[in-house]
Amino acid sequence: MSSVIAPLTSLPDFDPRLVPVLGVDSHLPAVSRNAQTHQALRARFAKPPLWQPEVVLEKKFMNREPAHASVLLAIVLRQEPMVLLTERTAHLSTHSGQVAFPGGRADAEDASPADTALREAYEEVGLGREFVEVLGNLPTYVTGSSFIITPVVALVQPDCVLTPNPYEVADIFEVPLAYLLDPANHQRHVFDLDGVRREWFSMPYQDGSNNRYIWGATAGMLRNFYRFMQA
């Protein structure tokens, strides 16, 4: 039988906020704000650069058949571009209470990863497809729970009306795209458990009185988006 590593979030006393910061990548350049306009984003996805994702595979902690999923990396076109994120409800079986993109498991009826992401975004936060312009996909990200996730990047009109599904979403919030594309806000963490070394990024964001702790798969996909934009 293959060994399985317990998920960190299953540990009763584990809090990712308390894991020391190994380093901050402030030596890396931030993505230019000129590259973050809707025109520039469209142009980059129309002719994507040669690049390599930095984070593609987590250490496996669950024996299960791989399942395909998609998330929507939604850039809301406000005066300052913002990224739409959710806080998952505490009772969910996976990633409860964590910050996440809208998204979920692919259905047989979904025509594409984008179709999955758009359907899930509507089901979770009420984002209608008429407000969304899909730009393209980033490379898949494989979680320790064997989800093969396709991040779908899209522009969202700011007049969209969102209604969170209370079963899945505890809160909806936005983080400036420029903040997430600045490695000075990317923290590295390492945690050893039973001889197994885990590494991840975090991108803590102070949203008024709320500390939004972005880490794990969500932060990993955002890190890959940074690499795509900086290539």
Protein described:
The chain is α+β, with helices and mostly antiparallel strands. The chain is built from four helices and 13 strands. Strand 10 and strand 11 form a beta hairpin. The longest helix is centred in the last third of the chain and has 15 residues. The relative contact order is 0.24. The N terminus is likely disordered.
Indicate the topology.
Layout: E1 21-24, H1 38-46, E2 67-76, E3 82-88, E4 99-100, E5 103-105, H2 113-125, E6 132-137, E7 141-142, E8 147-156, E9 169-176, H3 177-180, E10 187-193, E11 196-202, E12 205-207, E13 210-212, H4 216-230
Parallel strand pairs: 2-8
Antiparallel strand pairs: 1-10, 2-3, 2-5, 3-4, 3-9, 6-8, 7-8, 10-11, 12-13
How is this structure best summarized?
With 231 residues, this protein is an alpha+beta fold. The protein has 4 helices and 13 strands.
Features:
8-stranded mixed sheet, 4 helices, 231 residues, Nucleoside Triphosphate Pyrophosphohydrolase, alpha+beta, 3-stranded antiparallel sheet, single chain
